Amino acid sequence: MAQRPRRCALLFGLLLFAFFASLPATAAEPITLRVTNMDYFEPGPREVFEKILVPQFEAMHPGVKVEVEWIPWTGYVDVYTVRHAGGMLGDVIYFGSSLLGQFVSAGLIRNIDEYVRDWEDLADFVPSALEDVKINGQFYALPGRLDVRTLVYNRSYFEEAGLDKDTPPKTWDDLRNAARRTVKYNNEGNITRQGFDVHADFVHVLGFVYQAGGDYISHDGKAMIATDESIEAIEFLNDLIHVDRVALPTNGSWRLGNVAMMMDNPWLMELDPSVLDPGISPPLTYRQQVTNVHINKWGVTTQSQHPELAVEWLKFVLQPQNLALLSQEYTRVIPRISPMREYAPYSTDPRWNTWLTAAVMSKPLAGHIVELADVAGRYNATLREIFNGRAAPRTALTELAEYLNNNVLGKSRQ
Question: Fewest CB atoms within 10 Å of the CB: 57, 74, 151, 266?
C-alpha cells in the first residue's frame, strides 16, 4: 500500500503533462524593429516606406514588426542623445554627414563590419559613399542619400548673354568669365542678378578647396584650411565678390531667378524647367577635377538587440528597386550606381548622368573625426567674416586653423 501514493502522483503528473501538451502552441513574441528616419519626411516617400517597404520586409521575415518613427531634422541630435541616455534609442537611426565619428565616440552606433564586409552589393555603391561610412577600414554605417555639390547654371541666362547654353564652364577661369557675362546691375551699379552665388558655408566651398588641391581636415584630424591651396580657393571666391563684382556676400535664390550659377545639389531638378532651365556641369577643374559630397547615413544602435536583423532591413531598403521607388517621390542622388542608370526618374533625364559623374568624382568629409560638426560651425563663421569684407582670407584662416588644432581637434587622435 505504500506505493499507491507514489503511483497516484505519477499518474497525476502524466495527466497534467498531457493536458498542457494538448493546448495550442503559443506564438513566439514578435520582434519589433524600431527605425527613426528624417530624410523621407514628406508624404510621398513616407507612404513608400509604410505601404510598400515595411509590409514587404515583414512578409519576408515572419514574426518581425517594423515601426518607423518620423522626426524632423531640427534638434534630432539632442533627441538621439537623450534617448540613448534613457535606453530608448531603438534599433536603426538616420543621421547627417558630419556625425559618424561623434556618434561612434559617444557609443550611439555600433560596428557593423561583420554583417556588411562580404555583402556582394557593395560593388554597386559610389566609392565615396562607402569610404564615408568606415572608420579604420571597418563599417559603422551604410550610406543613405548623397548631397553632391556641383555647378548648376541657368541655361536661359547663358543664351541671353551670348554663351552656349549646352556648354557649361569647365575651369575656374571659365566660371569667372561666364559670371562676368551673366551678372546684372541696376542703374546705381548694384547687383540685381549674381553671375555666381558665393555661399559662406563649407558645404558650398569645399568643392573649390578640393579642386585647388587643398583639404578641410586631414585623415589624422588636423585642420587643413590654412594651406596655400585651401586659402587660394577661398581667395578665388572672395575675389568674385570684391574684385570681379559678380557675386554678393548674401545668398541669392535660384527660385527667384537672381543667380546665374551656383554650387548646389539636385533639389532643383524638381523645379519646372520651363520657368528656370537648369544645366548641370561636371565638377570644375583647377589642379584637379573633383567635387565634394556630404552623405547622410543609416546606423545600427548599440542598444539594438537584433543588429543582424537591423542590417538586413538596411540592405533591403538599399536594394536598387526600393531606392527607385523612393526616388520617384523624393528625387536625390542615391548611393548606388545601377538605379541611377536603369530606373526612372534617373533614366528619363540625361542630366542625371552628370549628377552620377559628379558623385563618382566626389570626395567625402573626414566623417570619422569626432569634432567635425564643431569645426564646420567655426569655419562657416570665418567664411562669413571673409566674404563680408571684415577679414583677410589668409590671416583669418591661419588663425582659425591654429585655434582648431590647439583647442578643438584631438579627441579622434587619442
Answer: 74
Who's near 406: CB < 8 A, 6+ residues apart?
none
User: Cell numbers at residue 15, please?
Assistant: 495527466
The pLDDT value recorded for residue 28 is: 61
Q: How far apart are CA 377 and CA 211, in angstroms?
A: 22
Q: Which of 24-28, 40-44, 140-144 has the highest mean pLDDT?
A: 140-144
Give the CATH fold of the 31-147+294-358 domain.
D-Maltodextrin-Binding Protein; domain 2 (3.40.190)
* CA 230 – CA 376 distance, rounded (Å): 15
* Distance (Å, whole) CA 132 – CA 294: 9
B/e letters for 278-309, b = 16+ CB within 10 Å, e = fewer, are bbbbbbbebeeebbbbbbbbbbbbbbbebbeb
Domain boundaries, the chain: 31-147+294-358, 150-292+368-413
Residue with cell 555583402: 119
Beta bridge pairs of residue 251: none
Provide the 3-class DSSP secondary structure of residue 393: helix
CATH architecture of 150-292+368-413: 3-Layer(aba) Sandwich (3.40)
